[in-house]
């Protein structure tokens, strides 16, 4: 489980590094593109696979130790918010990047990444009967905030102006993104609460 988690976050770190790294291009008879686009896409895919792997391993590990199906489902379900927790990292990485990397091109990549990761969280039907009401209410709150986050990412002010790809996005937009970052931090708190509720419920056993 630790190896899968580490692999996921290493790949995620690579994707963030690629988003704000140098823009050297290459061609592999696959059309034009940049290292950042390809590595970021790969990082997104690996994080998704890693989160699924961790959830699956947790399920079977919990079953193996005799805690029952309910505890196993609850323990694995808490990893469903992995993408939502990564949103704060994406926004913070852009805000912390050097000014020369706070361009419209890099912003577009960050926004695209956040749109992918901010899909609403859905619980597998096999786990639903075991989810405590408190966790269900918290998940509703998380999904409402995810929809709000997606609306923020879809703002016209974040859309790249034609011909401005390599230009600095401006201090006013950075201030706007700082507010988005605060919103993502609040989302993190709700995701962590959701995880704590499920862990507490899983420890109660069948």
Concise account of the structure shown:
The chain is an all-alpha fold and 206 residues long.
Chain-wise SSE layout:
Blueprint: H1 2-19, H2 35-64, H3 68-77, H4 82-96, H5 104-117, H6 133-153, H7 171-203
Structural features, described:
- With 206 residues, this protein is an all-alpha fold.
- Helices cover 68% and strands 0% of the residues.
- The chain is built from seven helices and no strands.
- The protein has helices at 2-19, 35-64, 68-77, 82-96, 104-117, 133-153, 171-203.
- Helix 3 (68-77) packs antiparallel against helix 7 and helix 4 packs antiparallel against helix 7.
- The longest helix has 33 residues, at 171-203.
- It is elongated, with a radius of gyration of 19 Å.
- The model is unreliable at 1-33, 35-42 and 44-67 (pLDDT under 50).
Helix content: 55-70%
Beta content = under 5%
Task: Give the beta-strand count.
Answer: 0
The geometry reads as elongated
* Largest sheet entry: none
Coarse structural class: mainly alpha
What labels would you give this structure?
206 residues, mainly alpha, 7 helices
């Amino acid at each position: 489980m630790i190896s899968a988690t580490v692999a996921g976050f290493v790949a995620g770190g690579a994707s963030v590094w690629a988003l704000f790294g140098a823009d050297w291009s290459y061609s592999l008879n696959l059309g034009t593109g940049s290292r950042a686009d390809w590595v970021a896409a790969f990082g997104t895919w690996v994080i998704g696979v890693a989160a699924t792997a961790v959830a699956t391993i947790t399920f079977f590990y919990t079953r193996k130790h005799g805690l029952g199906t309910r505890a196993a489902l609850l323990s694995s379900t808490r990893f469903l918010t992995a993408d939502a927790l990564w949103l704060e990292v994406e926004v913070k990485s852009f805000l912390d990047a050097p000014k020369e990397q706070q361009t419209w091109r890099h912003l577009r990549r960050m926004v695209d990444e956040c749109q992918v990761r901010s899909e609403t969280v859905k619980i597998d039907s096999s786990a639903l009967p075991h989810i405590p009401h408190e966790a269900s209410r918290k998940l509703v709150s998380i999904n409402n905030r995810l929809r709000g986050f997606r609306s923020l990412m879809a703002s016209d002010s974040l859309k790249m102006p034609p011909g401005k790809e390599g230009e600095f996005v401006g201090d006013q937009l950075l201030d706007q993104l700082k507010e988005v970052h605060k919103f993502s931090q609040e989302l993190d708190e709700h995701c962590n609460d959701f995880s704590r509720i499920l862990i507490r419920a899983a420890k109660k056993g069948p």
